[in-house]
Structure formats: C-alpha cells, structure tokens
Amino acid sequence: MGAAPIPTYPPVEPAPQTPAETETAPSPSVTLPATAPVPVPPKPWAVSYYEQTADAGGWHDEVGWLLVLAGGGGVTWAVTVGTEVGFAALLLIPVAIWVWLAGRRQGREKEALREEALKYVKELQAAQAAGARVPELSPQLRALLDDHQ
Predict the structure, then answer these.
(1) Between the CA of residue 40 and those of 58, 115, 137, what are the distances in Å?
(2) What's the pLDDT at 33?
(3) Contact (CB, 8 A) for 121 and 149
(4) pLDDT computed for residue 40 by the predictor
(5) Which of 20, 24, 114, 126 is deepest in the core (most CB within 10 A)?
(6) CA 9, CA 115: separation in Å to the nearest integer?
(7) Alpha carbon of 138 to those of 19, 39, 51, 144, 148: distances in Å?
(8) What are the per-10-residue average pLDDT scores of the chain (149 residues)?
(9) In the prediction, which pLDDT does 119 show?
(10) Computed over its alpha carbons, how large is the radius of gyration of the chain?
(11) CA-wise closest residue to 70 among 91, 84, 89
(12) Per-residue pLDDT, 135
C-alpha cells in the first residue's frame, strides 16, 4: 500500500466576537486576585517531643526481670548458704515493680504523644493536598505514617 499525501486546508478567519462574549471576558488590564496560600499547620510541642522520644525506652521490662532474678538469687543464696545478708536482695523486688510501673507510665505517655503526632501528620497531608508546601517529615514521623497506611 502506498502512502497517502497529507491534506491541506485553506486558512480560516477567526469568528467575530458577539457582544455577550466581550462583556464576560476579562479585560487584559484587570488582574485577578491571587489565591491565598494554604497555611502549613505549626508543629506542636508534643510532636517535637514525640520525635525525640519515639526510639527511646523499652528497657524497663529487661531491667525489671533482672532485678527480680537478682532478688530471687539473693534469697536462694541466703537460704542455701545460711547468710542472712542475702535476704536484703528482697529489696530488689519492689525496685523491679517500680521500674515496671515507670515503664508503663512512659508507654502511656508515648501513646498519647503518638496520637498527637499522627493528628499532625494528617493535618500536613491535608495542607499538602490543598496546595501548601509542607516540610519533609522526620524519620520518626515517616515511620508513624508508614505504620498507619
């Protein structure tokens, strides 16, 4: 099969404007108001604190168990050897409980901070979807976002 030539058309004059079109069309000297920039939500203190403490902690369980084992080992030593000084290791048991409670408190605090950080990340996503230039997320906030998607 042979190639067909490309057709040519005669030039066309633009159609005259009707009065209705000229009334609604903005004149070139009139400038339209620029859209207001979308505000980026400020980073709350709780989010900054979450970023600092997100990777910290987690040692309370291990230390608590070590203290319980040391207390149990001291009591076992006191009973088998017969020295009453080993019973002083029983004082490590309340310390272990205190460490566990401190860890629990820290976990609840981090969970509240985590919720604040998640709320902030969602606000940033909404601002970005509206056209705002948002700052880059920290590794802690990026990990939080990845966990919730």
Answers:
(1) 33, 19, 13
(2) 52
(3) no
(4) 86
(5) 114
(6) 66
(7) 57, 20, 8, 10, 16
(8) 69 72 54 66 91 86 93 91 87 94 92 93 90 88 84
(9) 94
(10) 35
(11) 89
(12) 86
Distance CA 1, CA 20 (A): 51
111: enclosing H helix or E strand: helix 92-129
For residue 71, report the phi and psi dihedrals to the nearest 5 degrees.
Answer: -65, -45
In the numeric block, which tokens belong to residue 124? 């940033």
For residues 123 and 137, give the distance between their C-alpha atoms in angstroms, rounded to a whole number: 12
At position 137, the amino acid (one-letter code) is L
> Hey, CA dihedral for 120, 125, 131, 135, is it positive or negative?
positive
Cβ pair 113, 46 in contact under 8 A: yes
- CB–CB of 120/47 below 8 Å? yes
Which are the contacts of 47, defined by CB distance < 8 A and separation ≥ 6? Answer: 113, 116, 117, 120, 141
State the Cα–Cα distance between residues 116 and 47, nearest whole angstrom: 6
Residue found by looking up tokens 């990845």 in the block: 146
